[in-house]
Amino acid sequence: MAEKDIVNRIIKYLKTVPQCFAWKQHGGMYSTSGIPDIIACINGRFLAFEVKTEKGMLTKLQEITIQRIKEAKGKAFKVTSLEEVKSILESLEVSPYD
Predict the structure, then answer these.
(1) Closest Cα partner for 6 from 52, 41, 47, 48?
(2) Is 23 helix (H, G, I), strand (E, B) or coil?
(3) pLDDT value at position 50?
(4) Helix axes 82-91, 3-14, angle to 10 degrees
(5) Which long-range contacts (CB under 8 A, 24 or more apart) does 32-35 make?
(6) Phi-psi region of 62 (alpha: psi -120 to 50; beta: other; left: phi over 0)
């Protein structure tokens, strides 16, 4: 599955999660490099997801950005599937059923 398809599945799912505001962060000349693909605020929690295919690797800048988010007390993850996102939300006790 292509990264774009994984992102679309995750965004579609997040739209069903109560108290969730999420968007696909588009890269470009006016955006900040290294920002994860999906940014979300769920029940007051900041979450960021860098989406990769199974074989995809984080760039050094993506690794640094994820670390900086964590240092700021946000949650940031590299994910490869919708199922992984669901598992993360469940472990954080952030689910469509909260």
Answers:
(1) 52
(2) strand
(3) 98
(4) 40
(5) 33/61, 34/59, 34/61, 34/62, 34/64, 34/65, 35/65
(6) alpha
Domains of the chain listed by start with CATH number: 3-91 (3.40.1350.10)
In this prediction, residue 27 carries a pLDDT of: 79
Please say whether the beta carbons of 74 and 46 come within 8 A. yes
Give me the pLDDT at residue 96, please. 54
Of 75, 84, 86, nearest in space to 17 by CA: 86
Cα(41)–Cα(86) distance, rounded to whole angstroms? 15
Predicted model pTM? 0.91
Amino acid at 31: S
Cβ atoms of 11 and 36 within 8 Å: the answer is no
User: Which segments in the chain show pLDDT lower than 70?
Assistant: 95-98
**Secondary structure (H, E, C), 59-81:** CHHHHHHHHHHHHCCCEEEEECC
